[in-house]
Fold this protein.
Amino acid sequence: MSSPPRIIQPPLVVVGSANADIYVEVERVPKEGETLAASSGQTLPGGKGANQAACAARLNYPTYFIGQVGTDNFANLLRDSLQASGVKLDFLGTVAGPSGHAIVMLQPGGKNSIIIVGGANVSWPRLDGGISRLSERAQNLIRRAGAVLLQREVPDALNIEVAKIARMSNVPVVLDAGGIDAAMPVELLKNLTIFSPNETELARLTGMPTETTEEVLAAAATVQSMGVQQVLVKRGEKGSILVDKDCVIMQPAIMAPCVVDTTGAGDTFTAAYTLALIEKHSPTDALRFAAAAASICVRTKGAIPSMPNRKAVLQLLDEQSPGKEYPPCEIEEVSKNLDAQLQVGSTGDKVSQVKREHSNSPKKVRFHDSEEGKEKSLLGQSVPSLSI
Ligand SMILES: Nc1ncnc2c1ncn2[C@@H]1O[C@H](COP(=O)(O)OP(=O)(O)OP(=O)(O)O)[C@@H](O)[C@H]1O
């Protein structure tokens, strides 16, 4: 008798920015025509896309990054740091010119002023005559992803294109609202499964106050009326709120004994939540997992350097609720099989041993609403998985 098929976790695909963050510590920002000495300076890898990809890979989930770097020295810093975190870089392109970079002027009291150079992050070709900006292989990767994670530091047009490709294949699309402060295209919102802003981003999008829980819920409902299924609001020390069509889950922050630097906490949270969902954890468990990962992130300086590995997150969860086990997940190395699949046509149907679940399959992500004691569907669609 043949053994049952092994379930292979489909990869997380992060499409977005990679930035070299040039930190300078100054007493104040310089006036026009003035030259100031900084007390220290350091260049660290960052960018919301790279941060989120690095976080997911450090949490031991197979993660691909689709992005671009330039032809300057920053490109090596970015590539090396992603590689060291375990991110698969087959789809990291190089374009002539500078890599994305940011000058972060850190001032006393934790204030900062930032100037961003988009560089390679915004040098994507225009969609010309309907021809995609992405290679056929990259499109196939998106179609076969467990989820696609986007942010707003690459052109909206690229995000819209990726979101549409994913949605047509029933791949969940998560947008972290962080990045460029510009109007949100309705076409992007409509193609999202989860929209994840912080309170400020939610207020900016809706024009509504977002300080109290009631205000957040009202603003999230407004976003849902724009066509988004779920809204996951990040609220710093106040934790997070997931608003689905007919239920709400609140997750308090897991307090850190000492908060050193909150940079990257939001990226860590979104990435950890998304991969936990692909692993078919309930949203309640996924929120706990994300809160624990973000709590570890704020204990150390920097974004990528402070992102935890899975063991540290599970240890913190265990300390929080001794005896309440976070369910293990069978992660399989997926890249070898996937490489073969990406070579074939867009549907991948020439690879006979690869079977993809259809959107109407009964395998839904469900979660328990603790207040009402009911089980509900989270994504409203199946989470795709590959079995061989
Ligand atoms: N001081 C803190 N202590 C513990 N956990 C925190 C703290 N600050 C943030 N977190 C955790 O990180 C999550 C996301 O943080 P936050 O709401 O600051 O996101 P963000 O504004 O998108 O962050 P950023 O843009 O700095 O990456 C919170 O929901 C919480 O779980």
